[in-house]
Design brief:
Chain lengths: 127, 710
């Protein structure tokens, strides 16, 4: 299973990963639209991102959420009807939604943030 | 399947504006007329949508003396402005109305499945069916292309579990569109009996079957088949989260997600709807002496352990997204997969059975003393596919079993069926006879009211005894709760406009268990508020269950826990978010009150709706037989002493029963007085002109009807 692995002890809370992600998928520099989110109230910061556990797959009423050949959980925008049941069942609160937008979104382990992280706090790994 | 196009109507596809299409679809299957009707601002202001639109259309379609099988009788199916949103759980309901063959007055049913939302998104706020076809037809709405057709229906099959699946496949065209089709159908029993239903389908992508949800009450299937309609089919493939054109999508989503999270956190510890649906009630009702057993004689028996919800949990496939509309995380529509019936035409064939829900498990289980859950599943399956209402079937079968045990019926009169308590084989054979149109099943399929007449006239049975034990009011069979010890629920059942269904009020715990509404005034207030609040679901296209089958963690600490105030506010919020119109919890009740009173006057127009129609059988009020009294003697003796002020010592059972009966019947009449007062009706149950004016329903046609009774 391909997954974005986080190393909290290395994270410096620069939030570059959030910018990278939201710019890539929403063309906006907005942490609320990032699949990875850094909560730096605590030390070390919490790095919240999908661990590809697949809990959301069974909850989806339209079978819009599937697992690809690399073990990554994917959302079909064609099939998704925006009910957000997947958001509610996510055990790590890593299924994202931005109210007003049609579909939830999540990390697909694309690795873009790994490349821009200056602290080597992120990595794509096979588990 | 080779089908002839008998009529066709093309229409413009237009987006919904704030929850409304502002047009309804009229189809006359007799003269093959198809047309659209505009929805006026007056309709929206006074009738809101859903059941309100149904009743408005039907009022203007029928005459004062229209009977259920007259061509002008209508079947109206409407959806409401909130229907079809995918954000808030329980938002996919259709509301079906017709003049009922059982009651002669309008009946309304709230049903899931995808037909309602898809028809709404195809461009219609309601569907109005009228006329009678010479030969069977299918009405097809293609919401992708903007075409309505009346098609020939030479299909051999009629039973819903096969017909629905075949039509899904035929009209989908390819596998990817199976979920974009929905079918309304009934079954072969609807050609022969009156206690019938309509099945509304949705395609279950995981199970790869057409699932069936029932518009159960009042014989809608019989009217459907009498019109020569084999099926309604809709196809729509453009569903998205904003198809209702909400004024405030973010608030809609936020409110929905809040409830999703509440369900995710609380359901497993509250009602376990996700695990076992409404069947979770079985042991609760038995524990509180509320589970109907032996035709509502008793509310509790040790044998009921056989129908404990854990038995149904084992039968239901777990872990599925079992919502009857998208976005319902309560997921209560459970199913038994690969069930192999042991009787009937589908014996040995693996089928998917929707349910049993509580009403079916109680009606077709405990009330007839069938304690094997698999027998209940089999009765459930055949009821659904034959188009029989499980509630009316259960109550009617319980009635004939009691008559059999009492000697009113015997093998000669039943055509050889031994209708003893618990004879599941006989109950199933009744169903098969209803489907085949033969035997004693045809008698049972007429419902309790007609059976009472037949048994008195043809078999010399005591009509008073039949009246006491025949669990019907207004011609409709009771649903499956014991109301003997809850005066408020006696009113809840018997005052329900369409007949004794618990969808207007379920007050047993408030009244009997928690004693929160001790006075007549308290009970009357509850019998005003809750029927109005629950009516609102039918105006909007919503399901009642997410209102109080899941509660916020702090609900018990609120000022009115029975109302679930936070969820009431959710409804206010999503109404405003979709329609963009102002709303608060008071206007919500007023919306309902308009339609509720209109329905009341509609009943009066059709010859019902008066005080003499609000009469319960005594079995719903107190102990009819000595064995009932003696089974709970301590309770009844205490009541004599504490409530009536009569010392039971030295009195015979029949004397005590007579005093109890007199007291309870008087209490019921006092309750009715209080409720009528609260609802703004005269003591004869007629809405007053002043009240109608105060709620804005002093329409000329309404005033003309009430003036006949004032």
């Amino acid at each position: 299973m391909k997954v974005l692995k986080t190393y909290e002890d290395k994270c410096i809370s620069c939030h570059v990963c959030e910018s990278t992600c939201s710019n890539l998928y929403f063309k906006e520099d907005n942490a609320d639209l990032s699949c990875i989110q850094i909560h730096d109230d605590n030390t070390p910061p919490e790095m919240n991102v999908c661990n590809q556990c697949q809990t959301c797959v069974a909850a989806c009423p339209t079978c819009a959420i599937t697992v690809n050949s690399q073990g990554v959980v994917m959302i079909s925008r064609n099939l998704c009807i925006g009910c957000l049941m997947c958001v509610a069942v996510c055990p790590t609160n890593s299924m994202r939604t931005a109210f007003g937008k049609h579909n939830p979104f999540k990390c697909i382990a694309c690795g873009a943030c790994v490349k821009t992280c200056p602290a080597e706090a992120l990595a794509i790994v096979q588990e | 399947m080779e089908r002839k196009i008998l009529a066709e109507y093309k229409y413009d596809l237009k987006p919904i504006v704030r929850g409304y299409n502002k047009r309804t679809l009229y189809v006359n299957v007799g003269d093959k007329q198809i047309k659209e009707k505009p929805v006026s601002d007056m309709m929206i202001d006074k009738f809101t949508g859903g059941k309100g639109f149904d009743l408005y259309l039907m009022w203007h379609g029928v005459k004062d003396d229209t009977k259920w099988n007259d061509p002008e009788n209508e079947i109206c199916i409407s959806f409401g402005p909130l229907c079809g949103n995918t954000s808030y759980p329980g938002s996919g309901k259709s509301i079906v109305t017709t003049i009922s063959p059982l009651t002669g007055i309008p009946v309304d049913c709230n049903v899931g499945g995808h037909f309602g939302p898809y028809t709404k998104f195809s461009g219609w706020d309601a569907l109005e069916l009228q006329g009678k076809a010479n030969e069977d037809v299918i009405v097809f709405i293609d919401g992708d292309k903007g075409i309505v057709q009346i098609l020939s229906a030479p299909d051999q099959v009629i039973n819903s579990h096969i017909l629905a699946e075949e039509l899904h496949k035929e009209f989908a065209g390819s596998d990817e569109h199976l979920q974009h089709v929905s079918v309304v159908s009934s079954g072969s029993a609807s050609d022969h009996t009156l206690i019938t239903c309509l099945n509304f389908s949705f395609w279950d992508k995981r199970r790869k079957v057409a699932r069936l949800k029932q518009a159960g009450r009042g014989g809608t299937g019989t009217v459907f088949r009498n019109k020569g309609i084999k099926a309604l089919v809709v196809k729509y493939s453009g569903l998205k989260v904003d198809k209702n054109d909400p004024a405030d999508l973010a608030t809609l989503q936020k409110t929905g997600l809040k409830l999703h999270k509440e369900i995710e956190a609380g359901d497993a510890d509250q009602c376990r709807m996700h695990q076992v649906g409404t069947a979770h009630l079985m042991e609760i009702m038995n524990d509180y002496d509320l589970l109907p057993i032996r035709n509502f004689k008793y509310g509790q028996m040790p044998e009921a352990i056989g129908l404990h919800s854990r038995e149904f949990t084992r039968l239901f496939t777990q872990g599925m997204a079992d919502g009857c509309w998208y976005g319902c995380s309560l997921s209560c529509c459970k199913a038994v997969d690969n069930f192999k019936p042991r009787t009937g035409p589908y014996k040995g064939q693996p089928v998917c059975v929707d349910g049993p829900e509580y009403e079916t498990a109680a009606g077709c289980g405990s009330n007839i003393c069938v304690w094997d859950p698999k027998d209940v599943v089999e009765i459930n399956f055949y009821c659904d596919t034959y188009g029989v209402d499980t509630i009316s079937f259960g109550t009617s079968t319980a009635f004939v079993m009691e008559c059999y045990e009492n000697g009113i019926l015997n093998k000669e009169r039943t055509g050889g069926l031994e209708l003893n308590w618990g004879n599941a084989d006989a109950a199933l054979e009744l169903l098969h006879q209803m489907a085949r149109g033969e035997g004693f099943g045809l008698i049972v399929g007429q419902g309790v009211r007609r059976m009472k007449k037949i048994f008195a006239e043809q078999y010399g049975a005591d009509p008073n005894f039949l009246q006491d034990i025949g669990m019907e009011a207004k011609g409709l069979e009771y649903s499956q709760y014991m109301s003997k010890e809850s005066l408020a629920q006696q009113g809840g059942y018997t005052l329900a406009l369409k007949g004794p269904q618990h969808d207007e009020a379920w007050l047993i715990f408030m009244d009997m268990v928690n004693n929160h509404i001790p006075t007549f005034k308290d009970k009357a207030e509850a019998l005003h508020y809750f029927p109005m609040f629950r009516t609102w679901f039918g105006l909007q296209g919503l399901c009642k269950l997410p209102w109080n089958d899941i509660e916020p963690a702090d609900n018990a600490q609120t000022d009115e826990p029975a109302k679930v105030p936070e969820h009431v506010q959710n409804y206010v919020d999503i109404y405003k978010a979709i329609t963009g119109k102002p709303m608060d919890k008071h206007e919500l009740i007023r919306q309902s009150e308009r339609v509720y009173n209109f329905q009341k006057v509609f009943c009066m127009r059709m010859g019902g709706g008066r005080r003499i129609d609000d009469v319960p059988p005594y079995r719903a009020v107190g102990p009819v037989t000595e064995e009932e009294y003696l089974s709970r003697q301590e309770r009844y003796d205490n009541l004599l002493r504490d409530k009536i002020g009569v010392d039971p010592t030295g009195k015979s059972t029949s004397e005590k029963m007579e005093i109890t009966r007199s007291y309870r019947e008087d209490q019921y009449q006092q309750l009715i007085d209080a409720v009528y007062d609260r609802k703004g009706w005269t003591r004869e149950g007629v809405p007053t002109p002043e009240h109608l004016k105060s709620i804005g329903m002093d329409l000329p046609e309404v005033m003309e009807v009430i003036n006949r009774y004032l």
